[in-house]
Amino acid sequence: MNIGIGWLAAIAASATAVWGQIRSFMDSVLSLLFVSVEIRSYEAGVLIVRYMLKNYTMIRAGERAFSLDPQFVRPLKRMEMVAGELMGRRMIFRRGWVVLLAENDKGGAGKANAPLTLTFIRGTVNVEQLLLDACGLEAGNLKSHRYEIIHSGGKGSSTAGYVDEEASPKVVRSTQYFRYLGYEYDEIGPPIPEKPFDMLVYSPEVDALVSEVKRWNQSREWYSKRGIAWRFGCLLHGKPGTGKTSFVRAIAQALDMPVYIVDLSSTSNSEMESLWKHAMRRAPSIVLLEDVDRHFAQESVRAPAPSADELKGLSKDERKQMMSFYQRGETLDCLLNLVSGVEETNGVLLFLTANDPSRLDVALGIRTENGVSSRPGRIDQIVEFGGLSQDAKQKIAARILSDCPHRIADVCRAQGYDTGAQFVYLCTQVALEEYWQVDKPV
């Protein structure tokens, strides 16, 4: 009996060895016939899929998934429900007699950021030319529409787009293995006004900053010839509602740049590094860090960490949220290394906003007695966003109250509406009151 079992084991082992050799031989034969190429950059994979969707015929196979979501349609200048197809893990494309298999999750791990693997018959596809053609198509598209808003929400936040391949910084954006039905990719995205600053009124100091940023954007070659890093950093400070974030959005729209908005309370160092690399790859681009005085405060003014007694009675999630701020000691060092470290940062326009700049760590840069930054190269300009002047109020009121100019004087004299947000709200309410009372009786 034991002898029989031994013979069976020997036969099974021999069969396994033979089958392994057969599989190895078949793999060798297949490798002579087929080529597999891995595109490790997620963004490069997206460009290739977009290019093939436009220039190849897609062969439908397996289950298909569609979605219907509200999107801003630029040609229509309004929000619409837009249908789209979420591409599967395996996509088959054909052009003539050339067939190409694209897999965005070959390992089957279900990762949204998985590399793209291209498989095709040897000699039928020039991958280098395919990449160049895909980049050329995207460059043509981006000539008119580079502006988009990319949010980095850190681990644990919801993700509607892709997750970065290097550090998983929950980067939410529109580019993914996705096909819009009835629209091109650059027709979907946030609205881009022709003259974004026409709707905003700022002080002469802020207007001067707009001109300086525009000159910086047009001076790439000048910086390169002189060996100077082509980057610009600016701290915008002022109380809430003075228009700091609106200013950054208008700059991005005017210069047609993507904006990377970082949630400092939930973004780790590795996530920040990865997002910074994304921004550099898409230069020129904008990185916006809001409320930095809450996160990068001086040690002397930073609130003490909560005690054990203060944490009692809180849920696990509440304790985690409360402690997250006090467990990010290296984030400032990380930011400083990215902004002015060994590696050059070209093409990044960095904006930081703060309500109280006196709380900021001096390592970032502060305003000196003569009004300039103490750390050029990190923060080059420090600009205050203050309350509205009477002239600014007149301009805003004239625009919003154009149908009821008799109300402008009273509105401009109103007390307690000093910030741009407050005054725009007041003008809007007055204009709506006149509109419904005169033109649209209920």
Give me the secondary-structure topology.
Layout: H1 2-33, E1 34-39, H2 42-55, E2 57-59, E3 65-73, E4 78-86, E5 90-95, E6 98-103, E7 116-121, H3 127-142, E8 149-152, E9 171-172, E10 178-180, H4 204-217, H5 220-225, E11 232-237, H6 244-255, E12 259-262, H7 269-281, E13 285-289, H8 292-295, H9 308-311, H10 316-324, H11 331-340, E14 348-354, E15 381-384, H12 390-400, H13 408-413, H14 420-439
Parallel strand pairs: 8-12, 11-14, 11-15, 12-13, 13-14
Antiparallel strand pairs: 1-7, 2-5, 3-4, 4-10, 5-6, 6-7, 8-9
Please give a structural write-up.
This protein is α/β, with parallel strands linked by helices and 442 residues long. It folds into three domains: 31-147 and 173-187, no CATH class; 196-384, P-loop containing nucleotide triphosphate hydrolases (Rossmann fold); 390-439, no CATH class. It contains 14 helices and 15 strands. The strands form three sheets. Strands 9-8-12-13-14-11-15 form a seven-stranded mixed sheet, with helices on both faces. Strands 1-7-6-5-2 form a five-stranded antiparallel sheet. A three-stranded antiparallel sheet has the order 3-4-10, with no helix packed on it. Residues 107-112 and 154-175 have low confidence and may be disordered.
Say how many strands there are. Answer: 15
Mean pLDDT: 78
CATH architecture of the largest domain: 3-Layer(aba) Sandwich
Q: Tell me the radius of gyration.
A: 28 Å
